[in-house]
TrEMBL record:
It comes from Anoxybacillus andreesenii. Its EC number is 4.2.1.51. Residues 2-182 form the Prephenate dehydratase domain. It comes from the Bacteria. Signal peptide: none annotated. Keywords: Amino-acid biosynthesis, Aromatic amino acid biosynthesis, Lyase, Phenylalanine biosynthesis. It catalyses: prephenate + H(+) = 3-phenylpyruvate + CO2 + H2O. Coiled coil: none annotated. Residues 202-279 form the ACT domain. The lineage of its organism: Bacteria, Bacillati, Bacillota, Bacilli, Bacillales. Pathway: Amino-acid biosynthesis; L-phenylalanine biosynthesis; phenylpyruvate from prephenate: step 1/1. GO terms for molecular function: prephenate dehydratase activity. This is Prephenate dehydratase. The gene is pheA.
Amino acid sequence: MKIAFLGPRATFTDIAVRELFPNDEGIPYITIPDCLEAVMKDEVDVCVVPLENALEGSVNITLDYLIHEMKLPIMAEITAPIKQHLLVHPNHQDDWENIEAIYSHSHAIAQCHKFLHHKCKGIPRVSVTSTAAAAKYVRENPQERAAAIANELAAKEYGLAIAKENIHDFDFNHTRFVVLANKPLKLDDQPLEVAGNKTTLMVTLPADDRSGALHQVLSAFAWRKLNLSKIESRPTKTGLGNYFFIIDIEMSMDEVLIPGAIAELEALGCSVDVLGSYPYFQIKKK
């Protein structure tokens, strides 16, 4: 298969692709919308994009495009540990404390706030499209006293030196990536073991905005003993105060419980869309 991922090579998304699809061809794209568009145009079979980080929360552009622009079903999910390092050009390895700019993705910069505050105070932080793009920039501009926040694979891919290891604020730093495709995927022969199954719904509350509507929604799952691992509100983009909810159920789509909950929600006047019912995988720390 051809698999689009948020590039360039050696992003955390690239790592997820290599772990889940080691025998397939990964193709880097510059932005998350580019990845989704590649699937819609049949340039690739699958795309893998980040959905949520344990420290920084949801990747809003992924959610917004899935809901409002390109409704691709979720086929699988993979969670990967995130280790951020400070990378510099080998020319500046010995005097990295004199760097004049730090490049990375905005989420990665936020994940390393404590280190940057105490060790790199006053040094400008420049947001780019990905951690690997930051590493690539530092490699291609050795004349600058610049550093990148990125992973170990990026250091190897772009020939950079790791000035400081593990500069992220918290040890439990993980990112969830979703696998999106227009056609069903066979994931039985993947190297990672299935950690569980999920079903993701998008629920829009009734237009009359009556009190207790959200309580009724949650009750439809509670009395059926359906475990919700996540519920998140997102704006519908139709006016202030108008939201829909993304709900993750910790089980695959069945013939009774989840369809029954959906029918109850629709009877209450809610609009319900199934975004996917899929297995999820976890990459273990090394």
